[in-house]
Amino acid sequence: MSKTNRSVSSCKIPTNKSEANLFVKIKNKNEQNSRQFKINVYDQDSPTKELLPVYVGDKLSHIDILGPGAERDYRIDVSGVENKVVFQIIQETSGSGASMGSSKNSKGPAKIELRIK
């Protein structure tokens, strides 16, 4: 029986006060395996760490699966956030954990790209 590991990758993302939404693109850089993960996003200044709404298209969802080499855009409602959000990807894996890298898209301050390996 294989051991299941929990991999939590997180980063802080600044928000733009003039934008009600933060757009994040997640890419599965693994060309052989699908990745199932949970997305948690909350205001870094929140004492309760209440989760912010995460949307795939118009559907509210905090859990998703990306196929090998796939990518998807997520919209996060940050209308009540003053400074930064904490963005987490949580994976339950039977092998080694995953890492998360990020880069800002030059098209605007509210567009972030994350890559899971």
Automatic annotation (TrEMBL):
It comes from Oceanobacillus zhaokaii. Residues 94-106 have a biased composition (Polar residues). Residues 94-117 are annotated as: Disordered. This is Uncharacterized protein.
